[in-house]
Amino acid sequence: MLIDLFHYLTTPASWAHRRGGHLRESVLLRSRSRRCRTAWAPHLGRARALVAQACDGLAQARTCVVLGSGLLDDVPLDHLAARFAEVRLVDAIHPWPTRWAVRGRANVTLVTDDLTRPGAVDAHGGDATVDLVISANLLSQLPILPVGRTGESDDHLGGRIVRAHLDALSRLDARVCLVTDVEQREEDREGRLTDRLDLLHGETLPPPDETWTWELAPFGETARHRRLVHRVQGYRDWHTALARSKPA
Ligand SMILES: C[S@@+](CC[C@H](N)C(=O)[O-])C[C@H]1O[C@@H](n2cnc3c(N)ncnc32)[C@H](O)[C@@H]1O
C-alpha cells in the first residue's frame, strides 16, 4: 500500500492523465505484476520472445516504436536497444521502473501520449525512419477508461476504440508486431468456466502467429475460489497476418 502511494504521488504524470485514471491504472498494474510475478512469467516470456522474433529479417533497423511500453515487462528492451539506432517508448504513463531502466541509454526516449487520441498511432509509427512498431499488450487496455467514464450510454465505444487502433496499425508502412489479450475466462477450482469477457468488444482478429494463456489473477488474487485467465494472440507481422486472412 505504502509503495503504491509512493508511486502514485511521485510518478511524473500530466493532470489529464492523473484525473483520467491512467496513473492509478499504472500503479495498480505495477503492484499486481509484482504480486503475480510467478503466474505472469510464462506469458511475459512468450511475449518477449515474439517481439524479439519480430525484429528478424528487417531490411533496416533505424527506429523502433513501442506503443504501450508501460513497465516494459513484456518488452525485451536490451534486445531492441542493441538492434535499433533509436527506440521510442510511448505510453500515457512512464512508471519509475521504466524510467530507471532507460537511464543512461542514449538511444531510448520516452514519449508521453494518449494513444486513443485520433492520429496518435500515425504520428508515432508513421515516421519514415520507423522500421518496427510494437503494440505491446495495449489494445484491450485502450477502451477500459473511456468505457468506464461513459458507463452504459454508448454500447459501441469500446469496439470503436479497438477498431481505430487496429486500423491505424494497418495503415503504417513499418512492420507491425501486435501482442494482445482477447478474452478473459473466469474459472473455479474445478476448472469450470464461471464467466467470460470479450476484451475486444466484438472486434475480431485474423488467425495469430501464436496464441497462449496468461493467468492474470491466480486463485486468491481477486477471489479465493476463482481465477482469471486471458487468451493472448501474438503477431510477428500484422500486415502479413491481415493479407493471409483476406480471401484471394
Ligand atoms: C497491460 S499494460 C502493458 C504494458 C507494458 N507492455 C508492460 O509490459 O508493462 C497496458 C499499458 O497501456 C497503457 N495505456 C492504456 N491506455 C492508454 C492510452 N489511452 N494511451 C497510452 N497508453 C495507454 C497503460 O499506461 C499501460 O502501460
In one word, what is the shape? globular
Could you give the order of the helices and strands? HHHHEHEHEHEHHEEEEH
The radius of gyration is 18 Å
Distinct small molecules bound, one entry per kind? S-adenosylmethionine
Helix content: 25-40%
Strand content: 15-25%
Number of strands: 8
Count of discrete domains: 1
- Unreliable runs: none
The number of helical runs is: 10
CATH class: Alpha Beta
How far is it from the N-terminal to the C-terminal residue, by CA? 55 Å
Briefly note the CATH topology name. Rossmann fold
Counting helices, strands and paired strands, the structural category is: alpha/beta
Largest sheet: 8 strands, mixed
Mean pLDDT: 96
Organism: Methylobacterium adhaesivum
Protein name: Class I SAM-dependent methyltransferase
